[in-house]
Task: structure prediction
Amino acid sequence: MAALTVSKEDEKRVKGLGFLSNKRTDNFSGRVITVNGKLTADEHIAIGEAARKFGNGNVVYTTRMTVEVQGIPYEKIDEFRAFIEQAGMSTGGTGAKVRPVVSCKGTTCQYGRIDTFDLSEKIHKAFYEGYRQVKLPHKFKIAVGGCPNNCVKPELNDVGIVGQLVPNYDKEGCKGCKKCAIEKACPMGAAKIKDGVLEINQEICTHCGRCVGNCRFDAIPDGMNGYKMYIGGRWGKNISHGKPLGKIFESEEEVMKAVEKCILLFREKGQPGERFAQTIERIGFEQAEAEILSDDILGRKQEILDKE
Result:
């Protein structure tokens, strides 16, 4: 095997641009950013052309919905970047910063309770792009899931958002049917007929919305769309399950503010090298939740962003 010629300093430099070393070679995988995994047909074609022209022809997809072109020689990295940028895309997605946002396909999925594409694109623009120069104690991952099926594992991200459809249950409309359509529709077993009337166990209900509109007597005619947020999740060698905030957010604007407050809290309270889960564990979930549910931290925003 030929001796490697790329220095550790140069390897570190290009990693910051989104190029990861292919082990035991002087070649790199160029990480192309997507917005929640969506690419146009023209962007796919451009990536394929870049893989043939600058790499080894292979294109792989990461668990975070970015695209990597393998086998790019160090000396072709600048040409690759220019080619990708000309096609309207960029490389990156590394470092102790907000990482590219992932989402499920809740916008089009039959179970989706929120517009996941819309919300994740807004988060991507505001915090992946808008906070690109903000250094954090460690990487910060955000996921948007359309419903409690949790296909994109929101509760295993630093911040996870889950779409909700909270049923509006009119108890007076319940007829206590022996074969209750709501009881049958509930995948969690939260809805049960007891003493001739439907009861919904709120400790079990996940607000998936499967019950809405299923009662022929309109006991649950509709529901409220909302957003549940988990904080402090992490996967990897040490797994942490995020804890839900004690509030269902009712608008994208509320969610956007809460996400920003999480990032600001991590920058302000986090210690170098620790993940958000560790910061929350150290300061206490109750304090973290209080900071996120109030607007006090926004008053310190510029001070937090300006700190060394």
User: Anything to note?
Assistant: The CA atoms of residues 46 and 86 lie 9 Å apart. The two ends are 44 Å apart (CA to CA).
